[in-house]
Specification:
The structure holds 3 protein chains of 3 kinds. By secondary structure, chain B is an all-alpha fold. Chain B is built from 9 helices and no strands. Helices cover about 85% and strands about 0% of the residues of chain B. In chain B, about 50% of the residues are buried. Classes of the chains: A mainly alpha, B mainly alpha, C mainly alpha. Chains in contact: A-C, B-C. Chain C: Keywords: Cell inner membrane, Cell membrane, Cytochrome c-type biogenesis, Membrane, Transmembrane, Transmembrane helix, Transport.
């Protein structure tokens, strides 16, 4: 399954690894912030409605 | 406008430190470098143009936050903004005052500090010329940085972060001219580029800085 | 006849992105994975560069996104300054961290590629240096957003900074070129010179580029939606504070 990367295996894997870590982190942070703000906005909207 | 310039100059003189601060920093930096890299005169001569330029740039940066911060704190910036003087002109005068109190002393001091770093004899005139052309750009870019961070808490550090990348082109061409001058190469192209950057910055940045001040005072 | 500016109305924006975002996100995921799997598993080794050629499937797309994200921020900032569309400036704010990360990826993958090829992780090559400078610009832009409390003031000042920064970024690019003639190979993967690269390498590059572009769009939309909501939340909270 694993392709033969020859003597550059560690370099190629490191490059892909860093990319996935950074992009994954960015995506997770974006999603988490999105969920957090969504929740807070929802509760704020409800408060606003109940207070008139 | 002239009054504004004179006012800023008097204030800088009375407060003291206006002239001294940047100059002192420049002197200390240049003194420290040989301790760091060793007293080998050839090595010092090789890095002298770069050190002198970077030193001048950092010394300039040191006094930037004074440009607008004091006037903002005591409210005179609001008065000046509503005065029948264009805000762009005010920015230009402020930058000019900063240049006279900081840039000009640096230009005068640089050759003497060049001696400490064994700068090549041929390079002296290029050092003076590029600093003379380049430091006004440093002042006006700095005025823009000061304008965009005016009224912010801990604005000084943020301003350095914003201003330093904008200094890169001026630094590159300035140090390049001195380096080439030291080796006796042709210097016209980088010199013209640097002059172009300075002219462009003086022409455009007062408008951007004035816009930033209007937004900050809103 | 609906004007295109209607797309920037916050409510409309939320409505159409609500439908479009899942589609774009799925397409982005598919193309991204496909491009990288193709590039990683099925591309033959280059006769000169060996397996390191595979690094280009992340290096080149991330570098292109890093530059174009700044362009997008510039356009969005201009739209904000001229037409005062809130969504526009929020999109610029949303794009900045993505651009920052892409710059970082381009720098890191470039450094890793450079070690076996040039024998050093870092070389003051014009393109590398330009990306380092671009990184500083992104950092400054984001720091300014963080530092200003009032959202509209922050939007205005960061937009002005983005404009001025763009001019100086271009200047730096030329200055750096002048300062050190580089060892980067020419535009081997740019669209107008595709004959330079053999098809085996070219098609997966296109796929992974498309994947990166869609990923960028999906992330921008997601983050912009978050920012729109955050702005609304801020407004409600301010009103509550005023009322007591």
């Amino acid at each position: 399954m694993m392709p033969d990367l020859g003597k550059y295996a560690s370099d190629v894997l490191a490059a892909y690894g860093i990319t996935f870590v950074l992009l994954g982190g960015l995506i997770i942070l974006s999603l988490r912030k999105s969920a957090k703000i969504k929740k807070r906005l929802k509760s704020a909207e409800e408060r606003r409605k109940s207070n008139g | 406008m002239i009054r504004l310039l004179l006012r800023d100059l008097t204030l800088a003189l009375r407060a003291g430190g206006g002239f001294g601060l940047g100059l002192g920093f420049f002197l200390i930096l240049v003194t420290l470098v040989p301790f760091g890299v060793g007293p080998n005169s050839e090595r010092l001569a090789a890095i002298a143009p770069g050190i002198l330029w970077v030193g001048a740039l950092l010394a300039c940066l040191l006094s930037l936050d004074r440009i607008f911060a004091l006037d903002y704190e005591d409210g005179s910036l609001d008065l000046l903004a509503t005065a029948p003087v264009p805000l762009e002109g005010l920015v230009a005068m402020k930058a000019l005052a900063h240049w006279i109190t900081t840039g000009l002393p640096l230009v005068i001091a640089a050759p003497f500090l060049g001696v400490l770093l064994h700068l090549d004899t041929d390079a002296y005139r290029w050092l003076i010329i590029t600093l003379l052309i380049g430091t006004p750009a440093l002042s006006i870019i700095g005025a823009f940085g000061a304008a965009i961070t005016v009224g912010l808490k801990r604005g000084g550090l943020l301003m350095s972060l914003l201003v330093l990348p904008l200094y890169i082109p001026t630094l590159i061409f300035g140090a390049e001219v001195v380096r080439r001058g030291a080796r006796g190469f042709e210097v016209t192209t980088p010199l013209l580029m640097q002059a172009g950057i300075t002219a462009g910055a003086i022409a455009m940045l007062p408008f951007a800085a004035a816009a930033a001040i209007r937004i900050a005072l809103r | 006849m609906a004007s295109i500016w209607e797309w920037a109305n916050p409510r409309k924006f939320m409505a159409w992105t609500d439908k479009a975002l899942p589609v774009i996100a799925v397409a982005a995921a598919v193309l991204f994975v496909a491009g990288l799997v193709w590039g990683f598993f099925f591309v033959p080794d280059d006769y000169r560069q060996g397996a390191t050629v595979k690094i280009f499937y992340i290096h080149v797309p991330s570098a292109m996104i890093a530059i174009n994200a700044w362009l997008m921020m510039l356009v969005a900032s201009l739209i904000w300054l001229v037409r005062r569309h809130h969504v526009s400036v929020l999109a610029a704010k949303a794009a900045a961290p993505i651009g920052l990360v892409m710059t970082l990826i381009a720098l890191a993958s470039g450094a890793i590629w450079g070690k076996p090829m040039w024998g050093t992780y870092w070389e003051w090559d014009p393109r590398l240096t330009s990306f380092l400078i671009l990184f500083l610009f992104y950092a400054g832009y984001l720091a300014l957003w963080e530092a200003i409390e009032d959202p509209d003031t922050a939007a205005d000042l960061t937009s002005v900074l983005c404009l001025v920064g763009s001019v100086f970024a271009v200047l730096s690019r030329y200055a750096v070129n002048f300062w050190n003639q580089g060892l980067h190979q020419g535009a081997s993967l740019s669209l107008d010179k595709q004959e330079n690269v053999a098809d085996v390498f070219w098609y997966p590059a296109l796929v992974s580029l498309a994947g990166f572009v869609l990923l960028f769009i999906a992330l921008v939309l997601l983050r912009t939606r978050t920012e729109v909501r955050a702005r609304r939340l801020h407004a409600i909270e301010m009103r509550e504070r005023v009322q007591g």
